[in-house]
Request: fold
Amino acid sequence: MLELDQKKAQQLEEEYDPEIQMRPMTPPATWVVGVLLATLSCFHYYTAGFGLLRESTQRGVHLAFVLGLIFLVFGSRKKNIQNKFPAIGQIPLTDWLLAITAAVTCLYIPYVFDNLAFRVGDPLPVDVVFGSLMIVLVLEATRRSMGIALPVIAVCFILYALYGRYAPGVLVHPGADWKGLVNHLYLTSQGIYGIAVGVVATYVFHFVLFGVLANRVGAGQLFIDLASCVAGRYAGGPANDALPRHLHHGPFGGETTWVAWLAAGRDASIH
Reply:
């Protein structure tokens, strides 16, 4: 039977899971990232307690923090290769520039929101420039944090939107120009600022943040131990306590896959 120690398991995760391939940092980069994370958390707690901001503002601020942090936390390549560019806290200046650019492009929509009603469908050149930057930055941030598969799929659909006139059979459509595509993806609520980002910025982030804090203070382990104490001593105990354990831990844990992995590992250890 193959046995893996914790160090080997961590190495395998770092090699194959792009979500935890975060770069090493030193001050002052660690201070900046820490302040940004704390500010983002406080922003979401404030809006959860005192009311959400205008839709475009809520989503724009959330995206500005998240995209900026991705360029600071995740490197452009898997392995930590010495970068030729000057760096601050082991983060290249190019990534600092990308983080600032991402934040500016995200906050541009809330800034000009009152005027968008008069130019949606016919964006100004500055709108196209900011929208083009936003699309490229979102694709790159997705590649860094999630891997190459999702950006490739997105690029394929972008190409289909631009060159649909050459598609075969029932897939053919008149196609769109780049200006119209940027207008749809950037200036409307049906693209980057759509329902998916809205749900994350309004609901999902709060659950995940609460789950992280609950786990840090030991509330997650409390519910797990409580379920084991109630049902673990009976016949079929590991299976019996799995349901209450998941019911208590899952709603605030924020990660259903982690809960399933935790339950499977703990049940196996009991057996």
About this structure: The radius of gyration is 22 Å. The longest helix spans residues 29-50. The CA atoms of residues 97 and 216 lie 33 Å apart.
